[in-house]
Write a structure and sequence with these properties.
- With 118 residues, the protein is mainly α.
- The protein folds into 2 domains: 3-69, Orthogonal Bundle (434 Repressor (Amino-terminal Domain)); 79-112, no CATH class.
- It is 70% helix and 0% strand.
- Helix 2 crosses helix 3 (36-44).
- The radius of gyration is 16 Å and the shape is globular.
Length: 118
């Protein structure tokens, strides 16, 4: 793989991990002590992430460095997650949006209870 493909893949994994953990770019920027635009550049592959930033992101997102860099695959989705996904496929687009909003609410509530320490 060339550097551009590797950087794009890393950027996508960083963005997915941040969103899954329920953090905003602003929160991550504060944690890393960089600007929000720098986080955006990381997630778009336009800025390189240094080793210290990657280590801190792995800790914040509760992921291994190997998972973030693509050296280790994410564990397969659990059966309850698969069941929710199957059930959501049968819903109307409006109901799917409502389920997504509820999941985001739950994730935000969880992340608010474990705000990153700076």
């Amino acid at each position: 793989m060339n550097d551009d493909v590797d950087r794009s893949a890393l950027a996508a994994r960083l963005k997915n991990a941040r969103e899954y953990a329920g953090f905003s770019q602003e929160e991550v920027a504060g944690y890393l002590k960089i600007s929000r635009s720098a986080v955006s550049l990381l997630e778009n592959g336009a800025r390189r992430v240094d080793a210290l930033e990657l280590t801190r992101l792995a800790k914040l997102y509760q992921r291994s460095m190997e998972e973030l860099t693509g050296q280790e695959r994410s564990p397969p989705e659990s059966e309850p997650i698969k069941m929710v996904a199957r059930a959501a496929q049968e819903l109307t687009p409006e109901d799917q949006s409502e389920v997504l909003r509820f999941a985001q609410f739950l994730r935000q509530r969880r992340s608010a209870s474990r705000e990153p320490k700076t």
